[in-house]
Amino acid sequence: MDFRINSEKHSTSEKELSLDQALKINGFTSRNGVAVALNNQVIPHGQWQCTQVNDGDNILVITATQGG
Questions:
Q1: Which residues contact residue 56 at a Cβ distance below 8 angstroms, ignoring those fewer than 6 apart?
Q2: Cys-Cys link to 3, which of 20, 30, 45, 57 (CB 3.0-4.6 A)?
Q3: What's the superkingdom here (predicted)?
Q4: What is the rounded distance in angstroms from the CA atom of residue 12 to the CA atom of residue 1?
């Protein structure tokens, strides 16, 4: 399965993959200050484990940062 996270291509041999698993595999471990959209639809944190990633999906991860 091939999918993109923040425009970067990722591949896995997994046939079924949750959004939560896809994020963890690719180094996103914290949920604090993180928003995720799957194919331009924002997915609430509580639905990451039950939302399936499909071949060709696009995941956008936005991390809040502090600045001044």
A1: 2, 3
A2: 57
A3: Bacteria
A4: 5
For residues 14 and 39, give the distance between their C-alpha atoms in angstroms, rounded to a whole number: 20
User: Which position has the higher pLDDT, 14 or 67?
Assistant: 14
CATH superfamily of 2-63: Beta-grasp domain (3.10.20.30)
pLDDT over threshold 70, residue 68: no
Domain edges within the chain: 2-63
Angle at 28 between CA 23 and CA 60, to 5 degrees: 60
